Amino acid sequence: MKQLSLDCQLHPNQRVSHFEAPNMPELPEVEHARQLIEQTAKGYRIIEVGCASDSVVLEGVTAAEIRQALRNRIVCAARRRGKHIWLELDKRPWPCFHLGMTGAFHTANTSPIKLVTSHVVEEKQWPPRFTKLHLTLSNESELVMTNKRRLGRIRLRQDPTGEPPISQLGFDPLLDLPSLEKFSEWLTGRSGAIKSLLLDQSFAAGVGNWIADEVLYQAKISPKRPTHQLSKSEIKIIRLRLRHIIETAVQANADASKFPKTWLFHRRWNKNANSELAGHSIEFITVGGRTTAWVPELQR
DNA sequence: CTCAGTGTTCAGTG
DNA sequence: TCACTGAACACTGA
What we know:
- It contains six helices and 14 strands.
- By secondary structure, it is α+β, with helices and mostly antiparallel strands.
- The protein folds into two domains: 17-168, N-terminal domain of MutM-like DNA repair proteins (Alpha-Beta Barrel), CATH 3.20.190.10; 180-294, Helicase, Ruva Protein, domain 3.
- A six-stranded antiparallel β-sheet has the order 2-8-9-6-1-7, covered by helices on one side. Strands 3-4-5-10 form a four-stranded antiparallel β-sheet. Strands 11-12 form a two-stranded antiparallel sheet.
- It is globular.
- Mean pLDDT is 85; it is low at 1-18 and 111-123.
- It binds a DNA duplex through loops.
């Protein structure tokens, strides 16, 4: 576990605490990270940039290009679409981020202010292990992106929404959920299992494995059901559950302990525990190449 | 030691 | 073209 060194090393210093987005980067977690970035950096200038020379995480750019693009820029906004985040700066190109499975944003401040929507985490080291990008801002706060498994990506784009990969995303359930008419039109035009479609980022951007399972559990529909044979009322329920689950998780700041206790979410993580939900057993199968938790007796 | 895994992409097959 | 499968990516932790 050698950590790639930052080629612009910043003085590691002691912090009382720092804040980080939890680690389960589907839409709600990514939205929470976006809010964290705005609270920390919006309106401030980037004074120093540390960037790891990690050719896996840096896609199509070098650490030097990242540093040059970000240094002395003002952070105007942090935007999100699906699981992608990008910063609007006072000058292009702009940095774009995907967290992969193990990415997170962390912030620290010399005089910690209360960040209502953030988790206070015990200080271990700063900057944290697996830091890929380390920004120091003109308000004396610091913003770090970490990526343990290196499945995350950092890119530079002149026009993030107009270029891949963000331009290839489908609708974002929080930003532009389609009307029921459009939604069912798109759904019936596809074949394959409904769960696979929900996971398809060019269909619904931001839906990940647990959200797809949760939607289908609450809609009482089997994850294996072929999309084209869903009834109009089932499609309606899927759409409403999709919106409801994501809105609820976002309002909870992606804090799983605040999710409703009735959710399948709380039971899906320990497969060995022989979990039950509402008196029915939870089964684990593979759909669309992904572990799928469902309750066969309740989902048709 | 083995193996699954919150995500994405690509090659190969049907 | 669509849809599916498996592998690859890289590493942690059970």
